[in-house]
Amino acid sequence: MFGFTLNEEQEALRSTVEDFARAEVAPVIGEYYERGEFPYPIVAKMGKLGLFGLPFPEEYGGMGGDYLAFCLALHELARVDSSVAITLEAAVGLGAMPIYRFGSPAQREEWLPPLCRGERLAAFGLTEPGGGSDIPGGMRTTARLEQGEWVIDGSKAFITNSGTSITSVVTVLAITGRSGDRPEISSIMVPAGTPGFTVAPEYSKVGWCASDTRELAFAGCRVPEGNLLGEAGRGYAMFLATLDEGRVAIAALAAGLAQGCVDECLRYVGERTAFGHQLGHYQAIQFKIADMAARARLAQLAWYDAAGAMLAGGTFKKQAAIAKLTASEAAMDNARAATQIFGGYGFINEFPVARFYRDAKVLEIGEGTSEVQRMIIARELGLSREDR
Ligand SMILES: Cc1cc2nc3c(=O)[nH]c(=O)nc-3n(C[C@H](O)[C@H](O)[C@H](O)COP(=O)(O)OP(=O)(O)OC[C@H]3O[C@@H](n4cnc5c(N)ncnc54)[C@H](O)[C@@H]3O)c2cc1C
To answer: CB neighbours of 147 closer than 8 A, spacing ≥ 6?
Structure first.
């Protein structure tokens, strides 16, 4: 019951992804990052390795694993680079998973096989330019049924994987009706290239520079009625379930970044000297690295705990929020400490810790900010906001 030890199969997967990240990602990702370019060749290799199909059944071209296997892969990738890790996280956790969980048999058969092979990517469009935390209250995108088609109007902001040349579909949340004063929200799949669906150029981002993030616009965009994913009006519940799982995945990614900072510092302090001694011989540096290792391990245990609760089939909302909060803050703290240990080189983009520093911040923002995680935890603890 208390074991956090990986079994043989899980350890084999973990070490395969670790080797892949060191051999195939580490040597080249810095150049893609500098150019702000999506790393298609790396994504193709990740596809061949089966990473995009990890948690899906073999009948759809998946690997027949589970969400823990997917999170292990994210953790190992993020020890080396977060752009490729978030590309995988968004493609599987946000893109393909809702199609698998809520799609009809025909929708699964149509969309999942190329997604599981990593030949195509799916995206999930929830956030809008006017607000991400305040969903559904702040949502403005609408879809109405007209002669057997959904007509979508509105816009979405910050959507990962939405504009690559291999993006096949974006699942968009839109208001499709009202129940009293509450909006009814549905999820609708919009294939890439649909007329009326425009993808803006890449944002210029602080971090995750080799991942694809765009603003989307929908103007009278028509898709068949059959592109509804799940039941009409159930989109909000689907989105909550998707995000609870996604938080475990982001926590695994963040814990991986936190561990990557430890890996890099251990190597560096054995090489760099100051005042006639290796940096690693100074206790002030050792204590910094000890704190970093402790934070990385706690972050890892937090996502193991949430993933374990998820796989056990019970409620895991609180564990997922705790894991996401803990791991993203550990990543940010470790990135700051690692940059400090590297001194001037920590500020030079060529060094992985500089990338870690730039990539860590968004982990406290995406898939629910740290404030939103605290709200969830407080609510799960039974604290009411009625008398605020
Ligand atoms: C690189 C990147 C990739 C992303 N990928 C995707 C994607 O694929 N799909 C998608 O749908 N979204 C995506 N997002 C959006 C992301 O999930 C949102 O940015 C996030 O949920 C926060 O929403 P917001 O930016 O609108 O901030 P806001 O909701 O405007 O929040 C602004 C600030 O106010 C705080 N705040 C808000 N409400 C409260 C409150 N009640 N009490 C206290 N504080 C509060 C927030 O915590 C935050 O600090 C991505 C974002 C980025 C940057």
So the answer is: none
